[in-house]
């Protein structure tokens, strides 16, 4: 409040609610006569004897040490709402009734907790993926990718095997992150096709995880897809 007076934002340090005491943080959210009715509805919030005027650190520490976490959370939300209410009053804007503060704090806490409820973990039988070598005299090219959002990039990997399952070529590279997942998958396929051409291999079976991309390639109708220009490159 002293800083506000120095900056001529306000002209007095008197509490704008009770108009009888100098206002500091503890007074605004705890000891003001106007907000006592808010805390009196909480039987466990009777800490007034241990709180000294102006000592907000002592006030908040007292609640952070309670054994039930929800009590500290309700205190923090309620104190924030009261401080926000105080700012609204200074700006001469409409305020909510003090009697609604606790219910609003409870609703805010519940809205936060609801998404935190852990979903039950269902045991799943692990699926074993085994590479099947291609029919003679073909080769098989497996392609895949990984998205790295932190660096806005995609890692592309291609492995080419012969009829015995032996690796005859491998590629790993990074490209800028495209706009959609579908575009990522079709770019993986295009790079796999380019790679087998670069190493001089023909009669190749391509295998990837994206059913959508495989169907698009089989249809041969690139104009149906937003990434049709990439499909054209592959075909």
Protein architecture, described:
- This protein is an alpha+beta fold and 235 residues long.
- The protein has two domains: 2-112, no CATH class; 139-234, Nucleotidyltransferase, domain 5 (2-Layer Sandwich), CATH 3.30.420.
- It has helices spanning 2-6, 25-31, 36-40, 56-64, 69-90, 101-113, 181-198, 211-219, 228-234, and strands at residues 139-148, 153-161, 167-176, 204-207.
- Helix 5 crosses helix 6 (101-113).
- The longest helix has 22 residues, at 69-90.
- It is rod-shaped, with a radius of gyration of 33 Å.
- The mean pLDDT is 75.
State the main characteristics.
235 residues, four-stranded mixed β-sheet, 9 helices, 4 strands, rod-shaped
Number of alpha- plus pi-helical segments: 9
The rough form would be described as rod-shaped
Q: List the domain count as a whole number.
A: 2
Number of E-state strands = 4
- Give, in order, the helices and strands: HHHHHHEEEHEHH
Structural topology:
Blueprint lengths: L1 H5 L18 H7 L4 H5 L15 H9 L4 H22 L10 H13 L25 E10 L4 E9 L5 E10 L4 H18 L5 E4 L3 H9 L8 H7 L1
Parallel strand pairs: 1-4
Antiparallel strand pairs: 1-2, 2-3
Helix pairs in contact: 2-5, 5-6, 7-9
Quick description:
Helix content is 40%, strand content 14%. The protein is α+β, with helices and mostly antiparallel strands and 235 residues long.
């Amino acid at each position: 409040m002293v800083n506000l007076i120095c900056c001529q934002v306000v002209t007095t340090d008197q509490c704008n609610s009770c108009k009888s005491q100098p206002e500091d943080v503890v007074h605004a959210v705890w000891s003001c006569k106007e907000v006592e009715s808010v805390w009196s509805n909480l039987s466990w919030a009777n800490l007034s004897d241990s709180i000294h005027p102006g000592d907000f650190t002592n006030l908040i520490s007292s609640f952070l040490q309670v054994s039930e976490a929800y009590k500290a959370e309700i205190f923090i939300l309620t104190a924030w709402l009261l401080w926000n209410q105080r700012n609204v009053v200074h700006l001469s804007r409409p305020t909510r009734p003090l009697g609604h503060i606790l219910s609003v704090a409870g609703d805010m806490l519940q809205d936060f907790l609801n998404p935190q409820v852990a979903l039950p973990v269902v045991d799943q039988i692990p699926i074993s993926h085994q590479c099947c070598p291609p029919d003679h005299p073909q080769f098989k090219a497996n392609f895949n990718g990984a998205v790295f959002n932190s660096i806005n990039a995609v890692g592309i990997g291609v492995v080419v095997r012969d009829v015995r399952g032996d690796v005859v070529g491998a590629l790993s590279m990074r490209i800028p992150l495209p706009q959609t997942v579908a575009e990522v998958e079709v770019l993986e396929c295009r790079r796999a096709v380019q790679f087998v051409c670069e190493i001089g291999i023909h009669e190749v079976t391509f295998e990837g995880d994206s059913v959508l991309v495989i169907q698009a390639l089989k249809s041969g109708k690139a104009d149906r897809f937003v990434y049709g220009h990439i499909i054209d490159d592959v075909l």
